[in-house]
Amino acid sequence: MAEPRTRETDTAPVRPGEDLDWPRVEEYLRAELPELDGEFSVLQFPNGSANLTYQIRFGDTALVLRRPPFGLIAPGAHDMGREYKTLSRLWKNYPRAPRALLFCTDHAVAGADFLVVEYRPGIVVWDSVPRSMAAQPDAGRRIGLAVIDALADLHRVDAEACGLGDLGRPEGFLERQVRGWRKRWELAAVDGGDPAAAELGERLASALPGSGAPAIVHNDFKIDNCQFSPGDPDEVISVFDWDMATLGDPLVDLGTLLNYWPDPEFGDAGALVSLGLSKLGLPSREELVERYAARSGLDVGDVDWYEAYGCFKTAVILQQLYARYLRGETTDERMASRGDHVSTLVRRGLSRLG
User: Fold this and answer.
1) DSSP 139-169
2) Per-residue CA distances from 129 to 82, 141, 175, 202, 318 (Å)
3) Alpha-carbon span 100 to 86, nearest angstrom
4) Is pLDDT of 4 > 60?
5) CA-to-CA distance for 248 and 253, rounded, in angstroms?
6) pLDDT grade, residue 277 (50/70/90)?
7) CB distance 35 to 116 below 8 Å
8) For residues 194 and 229, is the Cβ–Cβ distance under 8 A?
9) How far apart are CA 350 and CA 346, in angstroms?
10) Which of 10, 103, 216, 331 lies in disulfide reach of 17, CB 3.0 to 4.6 Å?
11) How confident is the model at residue 7 (pLDDT cuts 50, 70, 90)?
């Protein structure tokens, strides 16, 4: 029997329409990972917005299976091979990265490329301070500082030392990123979309900052991609969702995180709007940036541009999710409202550019 979903387990029965060919998946995994034994069962991690992520069990052994969403996929998006490459190597030098165990390119098994990753128990901070941390003084602020510490530590990892020196092409990184997201906006915009989004993309392209030394970039770093041990708000133990990881300008990760952060003027906006992060007691944007600069040793003088870029990228992703819903490619009703937050994010991004 499937266990009920709670904020402590973050698992639920698989959503209608999102089951895979589980007998075929089970057969394949037993053949590829012969150490697996026991009864096979499946639950879903339902809180993510894009990739389909499942907890699979063989007896007492839990693993995580990830594959792209159903339907039309934007070019270069949901790259399970990239995630496997990153997680099969990064864990040695960045213990917060779960270890990837297997990568499958045979679409007859699960309908797309997929990877299998070790499962780590823990809790993810969503719409409130977890019960196990609620009695801790200043828990929300400590959670936020732990998240920024985990990001700064990632950017200090030597990519060559963990076999990821060829993960991306740092030269021209920002120009390619902005150009790519502008193209994705054109493809996802419904009836043209918000014209201010195209303006934001154009302004970003015309004011590219100079990049410093490249680093491993997660490319979607946010609170709900971080995992904590129950009762400990001071240390992120795992970071998830590495399918966009690359080598490039590390400050794009800082900008991405900031675009999700509560803002005094724009409030809770974007993909995490429903979580109400402003209720958590997180540290201010200024404290976050100062902490990152001190721990990473990087110059953050152009942080406003990077946050504007984060707002644009997130707005495009939300538009893509909304477009998938309109095309009938997902049964997840949350996607019906994703487009509602695009304009607020675009205005926030433009405000950062002055």
Assistant:
1) HHHHHHHHHHHHHHHHTTS-TGGGT-TTS--
2) 32, 10, 38, 38, 25
3) 8
4) no
5) 10
6) confident
7) no
8) no
9) 6
10) 331
11) very low
Query: Three-class SS of residue 172?
Result: coil
* Size of the chain in residues: 354
Contacting residues for 74 by C-beta, under 8 A, at least 6 apart: 184, 187, 188, 320
Question: Looking at residue 5, what is its pLDDT?
Answer: 33
Largest distance between two CA atoms of the chain: 59
Q: What is the pTM of this model?
A: 0.89
Inform me whether the pLDDT recorded for 327 exceeds 80. no
Decide: residue 61, CB within 10 A, 0-12 exposed, 13-18 middle, 19+ buried.
middle
Residues 200-232: pLDDT tens digits? 999 999 999 999 999 999 999 999 999 999 999
Question: Left, alpha or beta for 222 (phi > 0: left; psi -120 to 50: alpha)?
Answer: beta
* Nearest residue to 353 via CA among 252, 148, 208, 195: 208
Angstrom distance (rounded) from CA 30 to CA 111 = 18
Q: By the 8 A CB rule, do 240 and 227 touch?
A: yes
Task: State whether residue 215 is helix, strand or coil.
Answer: strand
Closest to 7 measured CA to CA, from 174, 158, 127, 88: 127
Q: What is the pLDDT of residue 2?
A: 31
- Residue 194's pLDDT band (boundaries 50, 70, 90)? confident
Identify whether the C-beta of residue 86 lies closer than 8 Å to the C-beta of residue 164: yes
Angstrom CA distances, 346 to 5, 325, 334, 337, 352, stand at 34, 21, 20, 16, 10
